[in-house]
């Protein structure tokens, strides 16, 4: 019973964690990336389409990564190289992802709404669990990102240039290079997150199925700053909230309320955390 | 011996502005070479060319006799240059050690960041040059003076042979500045060449070996420090001599306070708060290192922030009154934050000049808007009276030079002839010529019987203008001096919390 609950927490956490790790890399590099929502959707869609066409879930995952990296370039080129406001571009790509996946879904899969088929193979479960093989990858990547940021030269430089790009430039660091890399890597991670969402958590694609998880990831990044472990905590919180939502639905809570629960809980925690951290900062300055 | 660096015929143009006009500069090994000039004289441009931030339109740079072309600061750093910027460019999230080694990080055999040896290296440098600092503290929590020390350590870590310091003492107390110069001296003795960009002539005369003066992008003087004088340098900088501001004794030494603060707390909740007053016809100076409580004090006096204790304006308790009420009662305020608080940079000079007076019947149009002609007339009057140099009053304020923008703020605030004026850092980022005019304006306000509170971290300014000087340190008033007693040493000691 509790193990089942823990399992559903982990399952719900994984896609958000992928996206949030991407967001964290961008935040560290000084790009406020709110395109995660659209990129998750892009990954989820590509994974299902290619998984369906080729009959291989892993090819679907691979295609999701490639497609989402390309999709992320739509953000990185204007925002990093051409000096456009990343928020504006990101809003655009989020809308584009929603529209484009709906359109292509009708063109390629021949129907709107939700697509699933017995031909569509999900990612295989790990032995003795109901988790897909991508799930542990999300958690391992968290540790890897933490290690990389703290213990390597390039990680140190990435953290540096996020805060003070001018200063980094005057040290001769290639700010735009790091930023492109961060945004495109975030794309790859969202590709994984999306694939996990459509081929791991479930085995189907439905329009707008990212359902705000990319936004939750953005919130998690804002909560965590550049600490991957705090980020993990924030994502787990969302996972718990979502799993709890399912539970409550089972216990008779109206579906709409259950759907809203994870977002409400996350929002509440964000506000509380924010209040605490400002209070702490105030104490320090006095 | 070949000079460490030789710039010849450097010309750099920004649009129609000639920032550097065929400038020559020779930097010898082991010398402290001051580069002085007013704001906009081209000092920073010249240094940016040397440091690879700008590419010159014409001219050559020789490093140890060999021609070099720096395409970026990275190239300059590789060639042994280091720069301590005026606005300290550090990464607040990272520790001192991380900041110092960034860009030239020690790595372990496996290619990972070697944090232990980074900390050791920084501690070692800090000890060798007498620049103590906690290597593993995050930079974000350090006071400004210490941050600059970190910048210096950064350049030392990279073994810079030519060190450029841009206005290094603007964030330091006199004692810290003296210490910095001692370190620079040591460095110069071991063969490092030091380029000191500054507009403080006292520093130049005390510490440098040679001086190059720039004006309007051209070299207007080259001096050996030992053979020159402040007057000679000023003449080269502004092309004329400075007249000292006239000063008469106060007429009504016992008049009641026009502005009074009693028990106004500036931070710490256990403090009793500051208590002082300003009389009509008097300039009270508040000296202190930036961040000693100036901001909360000004906020409490002007109504821009909360106030504890009591604030009285012309005998009326205004502790909880809003900004508009206080202004109506007779308060004017010249903020230090020119772009944020003092002006709306995107609006025209004329609009900035009438800001705050928009409700007076004379300026108000029939539909509640501004009457354009009246605004223009008022602006034109202020532009002439206060000597603001501008093409027209219709240009956006942001196109004015720092000195002229500041004069515009002073014009707006002083022309109202309010009984009380609060002036904060009036000459920050303003050139010597405009400084002189601004000081004259403030002195004139005093002659007019206005009560002036002058907050400045520039000791010479406070000493030149104030009748009394109060010293702020960590949110408390720690000392008070009459003008005659306010020596640099006494103020400096009080500013750093050394009991007077």
Automatic annotation (TrEMBL), chain A:
Membrane topology: Multi-pass membrane protein
CDD domains per record: TM_PBP1_transp_TpRbsC_like (cd06580)
Protein name, UniProt field: ABC transporter permease
Subcellular location(s) per record: Cell membrane
Highest taxon above the source species: Bacteria
Transmembrane segments: 12-36, 56-75, 87-108, 128-149, 215-240, 260-277
Stored InterPro entries: ABC_transp_permease
Keyword annotations of the record: Cell membrane, Membrane, Transmembrane, Transmembrane helix
Pfam family, one: BPD_transp_2
Organism: Actinoallomurus spadix
From TrEMBL, chain B:
SUPFAM superfamilies, alphabetized: P-loop containing nucleoside triphosphate hydrolases
Domain of life according to the entry: Bacteria
ABC transporter domain residues: 5-241, 250-499
UniProt xrefs under InterPro entries: AAA+_ATPase, ABC_carbohydrate_import_ATPase, ABC_transporter-like_ATP-bd, ABC_transporter-like_CS, P-loop_NTPase
PROSITE patterns: ABC_TRANSPORTER_1, ABC_TRANSPORTER_2
Keywords associated with the record: ATP-binding, Nucleotide-binding
UniProt-recorded name of the protein: ABC transporter ATP-binding protein
């Amino acid at each position: 019973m509790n193990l089942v609950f823990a399992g559903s927490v982990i399952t719900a956490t994984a896609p958000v964690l992928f996206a949030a790790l991407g967001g964290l890399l961008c935040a560290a590099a000084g790009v406020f990336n709110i395109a995660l929502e659209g990129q998750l959707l892009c990954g989820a869609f590509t994974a299902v389409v290619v998984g369906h066409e080729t009959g291989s879930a892993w090819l679907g995952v691979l295609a999701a990564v490639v497609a989402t990296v390309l999709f992320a370039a739509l953000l990185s080129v204007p925002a990093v190289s051409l000096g456009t406001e990343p928020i504006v571009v990101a809003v655009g790509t989020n809308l584009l992802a929603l529209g484009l996946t709906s359109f292509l879904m009708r063109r390629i899969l021949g129907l709107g709404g939700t697509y699933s088929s017995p031909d569509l193979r999900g990612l295989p479960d790990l032995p003795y669990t109901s988790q897909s093989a991508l799930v542990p990858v999300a958690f391992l990547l968290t540790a890897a990102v933490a290690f990389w940021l703290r213990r390597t030269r390039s990680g140190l430089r990435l953290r540096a240039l996020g805060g003070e790009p001018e200063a980094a430039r005057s040290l001769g660091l290639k700010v735009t290079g790091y930023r492109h890399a961060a945004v495109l890597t975030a794309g790859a991670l969202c590709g994984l997150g999306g694939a996990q969402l459509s081929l791991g958590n479930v085995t189907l694609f439905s329009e707008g199925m990212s359902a705000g998880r990319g936004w939750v990831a953005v919130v998690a990044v804002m909560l965590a700053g550049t600490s991957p472990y705090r980020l993990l905590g924030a994502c787990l919180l969302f996972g718990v909230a979502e799993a709890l939502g399912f539970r409550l639905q089972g216990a008779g809570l109206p579906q709409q309320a259950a759907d809203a629960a994870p977002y409400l809980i996350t929002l509440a925690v964000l506000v509380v955390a924010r209040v605490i951290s400002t209070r702490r900062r105030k104490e320090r300055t006095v | 011996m070949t000079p460490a660096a030789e710039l010849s015929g450097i010309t750099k143009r920004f649009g129609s502005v000639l920032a550097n006009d065929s400038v020559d500069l020779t930097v010898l090994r082991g010398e402290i070479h001051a580069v002085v000039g007013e704001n906009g004289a081209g000092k920073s441009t010249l240094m940016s060319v040397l440091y690879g931030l700008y590419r010159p339109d014409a001219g050559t740079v020789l490093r140890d006799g060999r021609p070099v072309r720096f395409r970026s600061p990275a190239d300059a750093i590789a060639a042994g240059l280091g720069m301590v910027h005026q606005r300290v460019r550090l990464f607040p999230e990272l520790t001192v050690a991380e900041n110092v080694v960034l860009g030239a990080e020690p790595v372990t055999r496996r290619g990972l960041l070697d944090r232990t040896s980074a900390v050791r290296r920084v501690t070692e440098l800090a000890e060798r040059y007498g620049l103590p600092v906690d290597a593993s503290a995050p930079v974000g929590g350090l006071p400004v003076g210490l941050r600059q020390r970190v910048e210096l350590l950064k350049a030392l870590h990279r073994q810079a042979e030519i060190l450029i310091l841009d206005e290094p003492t603007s964030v330091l107390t006199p004692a810290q500045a003296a210490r910095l110069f001692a370190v620079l001296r040591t460095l110069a003795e071991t063969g490092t060449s030091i380029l000191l960009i500054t507009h403080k002539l006292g520093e130049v005369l005390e510490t440098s070996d040679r001086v190059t003066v720039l004006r309007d992008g051209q070299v207007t003087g080259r001096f050996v420090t030992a053979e020159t004088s402040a007057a000679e340098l000023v003449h080269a900088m502004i092309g004329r001599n400075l007249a000292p501001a006239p000063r008469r004794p106060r007429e009504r030494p016992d008049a009641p306070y026009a502005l009074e603060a009693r028990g106004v707390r500036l931070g710490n909740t256990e403090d009793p708060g500051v208590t002082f007053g300003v009389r009509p016809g008097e300039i009270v100076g508040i000296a202190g290192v930036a961040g000693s409580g100036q901001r909360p004090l000004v906020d409490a006096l002007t109504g821009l922030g909360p106030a504890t204790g009591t604030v009285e304006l012309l005998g009326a308790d205004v502790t909880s009154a809003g900004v508009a009420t206080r202004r109506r009662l007779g308060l004017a305020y010249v903020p230090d934050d020119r772009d944020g608080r003092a002006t709306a940079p995107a609006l025209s000079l004329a609009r900035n000049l009438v800001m705050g007076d928009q409700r007076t019947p004379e300026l108000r149009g029939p539909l509640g808007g501004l009457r354009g002609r009246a605004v223009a007339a008022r602006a034109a009057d202020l532009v002439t009276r206060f000597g603001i140099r501008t093409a027209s009053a219709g240009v956006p304020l942001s196109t004015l030079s720092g000195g002229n923008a500041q004069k515009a703020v002073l014009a707006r605030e002083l022309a109202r002839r309010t009984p009380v004026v609060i002036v904060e850092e009036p000459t920050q980022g303003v050139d010597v010529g405009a400084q002189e005019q601004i000081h004259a304006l403030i002195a004139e306000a005093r002659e007019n019987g206005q009560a002036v509170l002058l907050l400045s971290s520039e000791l010479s300014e406070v000493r030149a203008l104030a009748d009394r000087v109060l010293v702020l340190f960590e949110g408390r008033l720690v000392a008070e001096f009459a003008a005659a007693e306010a020596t640099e040493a006494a103020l400096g000691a009080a500013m750093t919390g050394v009991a007077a």
